[in-house]
Each structure stands twice: as C-alpha cells, then as structure tokens.
Amino acid sequence: MAETKPRRISYRAVLPFRYSAGRAASRFFAELRDNKRILATRCPKCTKAYVPPRPVCGECFEPLKEWIEVGPEGTLVGYTVVHFPFLDPLTGRERPVPYGYGFIVLDGAATKIQHFIEETDITKLRAGMRVKPVFREKRQGNFGDIESFRVVG
Amino acid sequence: MERKVAIVGVGQTHHKARREDVNMMEMVHEAVLRCLEDAEITIDQVDAVLIGNMEHFEGVNLSDMWAVDFSGALGRFGMKITTGGSTGTTLSIASYYHVASGLFDTVLCIGWQKQSEGDTTAGLVSATDPIWERASFAGAFGTFAAAATQFMKEYGVSEEHAAKIAVKNRQNGRRNPYAHLQLDISVEDVLKSRVLAYPIRMLDMCPASEGACAMLFASEEKAKKITGRPAWVAAAETRHDSPFIGDVPMFMDLRTLRAASSAAYKKAGITNPLKELDVIELYEPVSWAEIAFLDALWLTEKGKIRDLIDKGVTNMDGELPVNPSGGVLCTNPIGATAMLRVAEAAIQIRGKGGARQIPNVRTALATGYGGNWWSDVMILKDRL
Q: What's the rounded Cα separation, in Å, for the pair A138 and A136?
C-alpha cells in the first residue's frame, strides 16, 4: 500500500461566555467604577485583607463579611517587560509589545494583584518601587477600569 | 493499612514539537504498547486504566472516552484525571492509591498532550480567572518573569545562575533519546537568546512538546512476578495553595513543595535528603524555577541552595544529580510532563537509563508542579 501523507485539519472556534461575577466582585467593581475606590474583604480570624475580595478565607475557611478600602497606592514586588507578542484570546489579536506587567501589593492588602505597568523601560523598574493606579475616564465596572499602574515618587 | 506498591513498567514516545504522523489517540497507543512491552505483560493483566491531559489545549473533551480503544480501557475500570500541570503526578499518585488500597492489583496510567494542535496561550488563559486575571495575563513566561525579579532580589540569584541550569538540563537531554530538545548550548548562548519577558530568555523556557508516557503500578505480589527490579513507592504527597496568582507572598518560595517534601521524607524515613537521595527528577517549567524549587526540598539551609548548585552537586556527575533526563526544559507535553518525572525516577531505580543512567540509584525523588503552586512529591526506592 502506498504511504499516505499525514494530513492536518484546521478548525477555528469563537467561544462566547458570560460569567456571573458573584457578590464580592459585583460590589468591588461597582465601587471601582463609581468612586475609583479599591475594596478588599478582611478575615476576622487571620486579619488578612484580600484583593480580589472573596466571600471565604481559604486558610481559615471563615466567611468574609468585613469590607475595607485598600490602596490606591501600593508597592511593586515583582515586575517585567514583555517582549514576546502572543495572541490575546480576549481580543483575537496580538497584544502590542513591549508592555510592562507586575505584581503589586496595595497598601493594606495581604495579597498581590497583577496588572500592566506603564513603564516599558526595564532599567527604570525595581522591586520595591511605589506605584499608583491610572484610572480610565470612562469606566465600565471591570478590572480594565484601571488602565495600568504608574511609578510614583 | 496500605499495601506495598511498585512501578513495574514504563513507556514513552519520542517527544517532538509536532508528531504529524499520528493523531492524539495513536500517540497514546504508542506509549501504552511500550509500557506493556517494558513490563512484559499483556493488556489482559491490567485491572484499571487512568488517563489524563489538559483538555483545553486540544479543545477535545471526554478525552478518556476518545482514548478507550487505544488505552486498553474498553470494558475495564478507569477514569480521567486532569489537574493542569500536575496531571502526570496526580495520575501516578492516584495509581498508587488504587493499588495500595487493595482494590486493584495492576493499574496502567497514561499522561499525554498533543500541544501543537491548539493554541497554548489560549489553553493556559482558560485556567485564569475570567473576571480578575484574563485581561492582563501575560502568559506563563510573563508570570514567571515577574516572579523571577522578586526572586532575584530576595535570594541574590542572577541571570547567569539561571542560564547555567538551562545549559545543564539541555546537555543532560542530549543523553536522553526520548527528549524533545537536544541542544548543545552554552551559558553565552542562553544570555544572547531573545528576551521573552525580562529576565526570562528564550533558552530559559521549557518547550511545548507532543508526547505520551505510560506506567504500570502493581501490588507487591504482582510486582514480584512481573519483574526483578521494581521501583517501590515509599511516599506520595500533594499540597495545594490559593488560586489567585497574587495570593502567596512569593511564588518562587514554593511553600507547597516545602510542605509536601517534608511530609514525604517523614513517610519514607528520610532525615538527611542531601545524603539519602541519589537522584531528583524535578518539575522545572523555567530555568529559574529549578533553583527556587530545589531550595524547597530541604537539602540545605533555606535560601542557600545556590551554594550547592555552584559546587556542582546537582550536575550529572555530582553528589545529587537533578534532572538527568533533561527535565521539563527539554520535554514538555503538559499532560505527560509530571508523569515523566516519576517515570524517569523509576527508570533510574530500575537501571534502565542508558546514557543518562546515574550509578547506584537506590532512592529517587520526583516532583510535579502545576498552577497555582500545586506540588506533588513521590519518593521511589529499590526496596522497602
């Protein structure tokens, strides 16, 4: 029998989803959109303030009902500048490079959040720098209401 | 009280970027046949089949169902287990549980991935939180890069240190005929390679591979009939951590691995791992991670692992070789990757390592890792 050439079959998918944000996220995003305030939920047992806010403390398995404001400023604990463009599945397009990306501990929070960093020159970034959020003028009630974090001071 | 369990057969495909000659299930079948051949048994002697991959990469669900003819699962007990990057070690540990419980005498486990058939980033993105993380997620290397800058600062580790790990593992991979990447590279090559996201360069990163691995776990009674060289399971531990990328204080300080390895050493009766372990197959998704994750294995004082590495302890000819197979830095078919750590540890115990065999391996440690910060540890011995 003659050798068959291996074939590859192409397939493209567009996958639409609508996620329920949940009670904690819904409250967080309303406050972010309307008042440019960043909220966290705090555990009564271990006193950790969580961003993203959540209804349960994983370590203590306690319900979290106390809401506090954190930030808006914070400390950059890890950072990078991304040079490799990959397909952004949210837009279907390659994300333009370079862009800054990092982990920030907002003042008062026990956890880090990750977001874009405005600075794209790696030599100008250091762990320990102080950063603040850059809010969009038109906010929609999602994490993109913060455009990026900017180094201050 | 649990029964004694051993690994008595290992099979794997020759891992590559693209296996265009086979489809997913044909590739799984290759690994199964090789495992049965290595164990010198037929499929009739297998009681159960456990299989797993990360389904979002190929976008085909019910992958265990699609595999049923090829995995030997038809008419047999079995299930799919899928836990992200740790899939392969979860499958291994689950196989151990199945046999140790006394409910099954022989269990075949298979881990696989046909990575090039989908979009890797889209697959990884599907594991991030859609509301909090997806908009800014910068891929695996973006996350590791931001973690590496924190690690560099806290542990005094440099880009040269990471580059040396990348070189060590790729050079080790050249002795492994199954390894995907077989690169004759130097530290200079690594430091000159393209920056993906500072400080991670192209040659610091693991590849995306296509491949499958299969192992046979057996009860003591069956193991002794099947082979003269079983690799006995002395310990199996798993620890989880919080799901959001930012929840732990420092990613590279892998506290789940500290906890899992500590518990595993206790179970296996190991009090001085640096002296008592003969080889480690460690899950290192990026060169930096090998340094950080080794520090979590209690080989030396916390934060001081660099001293051991600098002295050559973890080289192929060192006191405690790490990743003689070439590790994840050479071969990364995600559903199989963690299983390959256990398989390569078993290969070392059984003396079947060929050019990558370390002499006199009696005790081996294998780790599995996955998002977020999940750690598995298995310890294998040539006797219990």
A: 5
Two tokens, residue B135: 């908009």
- The reply to whether B198 touches chain A by the CB within 8 Å rule is yes
Distance from the B120 Cα atom to the nearest Cα atom in chain A, whole angstroms: 10
pLDDT tens digits, B67-88? 999 999 999 999 999 999 999 9
The domain that contains B276 carries what CATH number? 3.40.47.10
ipTM of the complex: 0.91
Say if residues A68 and A24 touch (Cβ distance below 8 Å): no
The sign of the CA dihedral B181, B187, B189, B191 is positive
**Strand ranges (E), A30-121:** 38-42, 49-50, 56-57, 62-63, 66-70, 74-82, 87-88, 93-94, 99-106, 113-117
Domain assignment present for residue B359? The answer is yes
And the tokens for B316? 């192929």
Q: Give the C-alpha separation, A7 to B287, whole Å.
A: 35
| Residue B304 CB neighbours (<10 A) | 11
Q: Contacts of residue B198 in chain A, CB cutoff 8 Å?
A: 80-81, 83, 122
Answer yes or no: are the C-beta atoms of B309 and B354 closer than 8 Å.
no
Instruction: Kindly state the helix (H) or strand (E) to which residue A150 belongs, with its residue range.
Output: strand A146-152
| Domain encompassing residue B347 | 133-205+235-328+340-381
